[in-house]
Amino acid sequence: MRDLFSTVAPRYDFFTRIFSYGMDRQWKRLAVANAAIPAQARVLDLACGTGDFAKLIAALQPGAKVVGADLTASMLRLAGLPNAIAADAASLPFVSGSFDAVFIGYGLRNFETLPARSRKFIVH
To answer: Does position 5 have pLDDT exceeding 70, yes or no?
Structure first.
């Protein structure tokens, strides 16, 4: 997975826009707007790719501490986020309860298995 996303990183946003017919931006804006993120929240943009959620959250709540985590360093470089870490979502280096909110977009499709307790958070 790491090799694949390292290869497609420079064209990732282009492909995302094409495959969603440009609607991905609206979906992400709606998700952030409806999350009611507190002013000083700690937020994780998991499998952040080029950092769309992180950037939207930072713009909406400048006092929030937003961390982007992605499997590939090349995606993180493109994201240009001030707080970013290359990490596997299956074994994150954060203590449980470190964040007030977690966002994940298309990265969810890359999980081989999702624990049953995680499924209640998936919006259909």
So the answer is: no
* Predicted confidence (pLDDT) per residue in 70-112, tens digit: 988 988 999 999 999 999 888 899 999 999 999 998 777 667 7
Structural domain count of the chain: 1
Which domain, by its residues, includes 109?
2-119
The C-alpha angle with vertex 89 and arms to 74 and 96, in degrees rounded to 5, equals: 130
Domain harbouring 76, CATH code: 3.40.50.150
- H-helix segments, the chain: 2-8, 12-19, 24-34, 52-60, 73-79, 116-119
Alpha helix positions (H), 20-86: 24-34, 52-60, 73-79
Strand, helix or coil at 44? strand
> DSSP character for 121?
T
pLDDT confidence of residue 35:
93
Would 124 be classed as within a structural domain? no
Residue 30 vs residue 108, higher pLDDT: 30
